[in-house]
Amino acid sequence: MNELPGGTRLRVAPKVVLHDHLDGGLRPESILQLADDCGHRLPADTADELASWFRDSADSGSLERYLETFEHTVAVMQTPEGLERVARECVIDLAEDGVAYAEVRFAPEQHLERGLSLDRVVEHVLEGFRAGESAVAAASGRRIRVGCLLTAMRHAARSREIAELAVRFRDRGVVGFDIAGAEAGNPPSRHLDAFEYTRAANAHFTIHAGEAFGLPSIHEAVAFCGTDRLGHGVRIVDDITVHSDGTATLGLLANYVRDKRIPLELCPSSNVQTGAVRTIEEHPFDLLARLRFRVTVNTDNRLMSDTTMTREMTRLVGAFGYGWSDLERFTINAMKSAFLPFDQRLELIDDVIKPGYAVLLG
Q1: pLDDT of residue 207
Q2: Over residues 24-49, mean pLDDT
Q3: How does pLDDT run across 304-339, given as a tens digit for each residue?
Q4: Which parts of the sequence bind Zn(2+) (predicted)?
Q5: What is the CA radius of gyration of the chain?
């Protein structure tokens, strides 16, 4: 089959997303309604205008400016009703995009302004996820599974508390722990006690690293903190030298990341928006894929990047000419890297992903 993947066939292809922020994927119309309910003032009055505002504000080329857009989404996620609605709609939207498994992350510490406790915040989000899964099954008979990652903000001092929260809820839908926020000035090694606690509890964690700050952030996340995955990790390319004949030499850190099969949660559109790379065509995704790093495709923030998994894959197809077998490999990479027990990962690969791509491959 010579056709490039795209259109409806690509939308229904089974997908796996490991890096998707709950507060970065709200529906604009839902933000308007929730903001009206809680009295929060927004920068636009219609869903279309609001969507454009988020997209344009996030296109600054600065990670710090990009993160400012979350003030409005987080503001409408402070009540049980707001949290459950946003979580439910997230699952439904992902399922409509062909996602079979997702790990969706959020920072519970940012949702306490209306008096909710950390535990109650997590309970309401998990309830929303389960309601979304049930709604998808009732409407289409399809199954989507969503796990939750609890994120600590790296500029704050609650990472150990959030790590304990993640472990406390790991049998109720939370699959791992994460830290996020501006990398510069906030190295992951400041949160060693949280990572040591997580490892001691035999729990999984990922670290936002190598998006804006480069190799030192990746080195700390891997060497000092022992991360299972790298959130973004795109700047690992700085430790790779490409020669004029097309061959590449890997530095010690890049070799270690590849040898250890540490997954890279790459988010192409978001990486362009935050200035980590200039264009999709210049994104090191293809170089890393050809060098057999464990690359995965992710959305990061669907609202701010005006994206979906289908759009991310479409952009990669357009930039690098990928076929169905390439997209299947990236999807299996993601499923192998998920924070699920091995048998459950294997079941989704064998029963959902491979059969789905077999049809597309003809």
Answers
A1: 97
A2: 96
A3: 999 999 999 999 999 999 999 999 999 999 999 999
A4: 19, 21, 208, 300
A5: 19
In the chain, helix, strand, coil percent, each to 5? Answer: 55, 15, 30
In the block, residue with structure tokens 């304990």: 164
**Is the predicted pLDDT of residue 1 greater than 50, yes or no?**
no
Of the candidates 175, 92, 173, 187, the one whose C-alpha atom is nearest the C-alpha of residue 140 is 92
DSSP SS3 for 256: helix
Instruction: Give the Cα separation of 304 and 70 in Å (integer).
Output: 9
**Extents of the domains making up the chain:** 15-355
What gap in Å lies between CA 223 and CA 4, rounded to an integer? Answer: 40
Nearest residue to 38 via CA among 116, 92, 127: 116
Calculate helix-pair angle for 28-38, 47-58, nearest 10 degrees: 100
* pLDDT value at residue 2: 56
Contact (Cβ atoms closer than 8 angstroms) between residue 14 and residue 94: no
Q: How far apart are the first and last CA of the chain?
A: 7
pLDDT at 125: 98
In the numeric block, which tokens belong to residue 10? 């690509």
Enclosing H/E stretch for 146: strand 145-153
Please give the annotated binding residues for substrate, written as ranges: 21, 23, 181
Position 64 pLDDT exceeds 80? no
Instruction: Please give the C-alpha separations between residue 133 and each of 99, 100, 125, 144, 300, in angstroms, as whole numbers.
Output: 12, 11, 12, 6, 20
Binding residues: 19, 21, 23, 181, 208, 300
Other Cβ atoms less than 10 A from the Cβ of 278: the count is 11
- Which are the catalytic amino acids? 211
Q: Which CATH architecture has domain 15-355?
A: Alpha-Beta Barrel (3.20)
